[in-house]
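<derive_structure_tokens>
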Amino acid sequence: MDKPPRAPLWLWLLLPCAPVLLFAAYFTVPLGTFGPHHPVLSWTVFGLLLALLAGLLLREIQSIMLERPRGLPGIVILLLSIVTLLVFSTCYLALARAPNQFTGLSTRVDALYFTVITAATVGYGDIVPVSQTARVIVMVQILYTLVFLTAAATAVGQRVRGQLDVRARRRQDERG
């Protein structure tokens, strides 16, 4: 049996560096363009980013399910999942700039915290969407997480399970 090709070193280096760079960008890039003063731009960018991320996630899920993954299986899905959380976090931060949208959300950390708590469907109640718009976006995030991020995590899990099965069979064949 042929061994599967190994991922290049740069892909292994990307694993710890890319999430750090994504979070560094989230905390340093100016976001003043988005919010209640530019609603058309804000909603357009938000919608386009979610559509793009959904398309990229579906492409990665398909490649894993068809057993044709590119590069390091799961890395792209991990990065796309992080970007998805950061997009929702940025949306919440922009929404919170308008009065009566959220209670308890005023900083990037607050927005990221609320996004992660919402994705985990925990909801501690310390940050609350007050307006109808904020509540709709929270529902969109929950549905987006359930559909796209759960499907992506399932695909990666199946890929890992399949690779473990292949390795176990290979070891068994070598023994005897």
Notes: The longest helix spans residues 132-175.
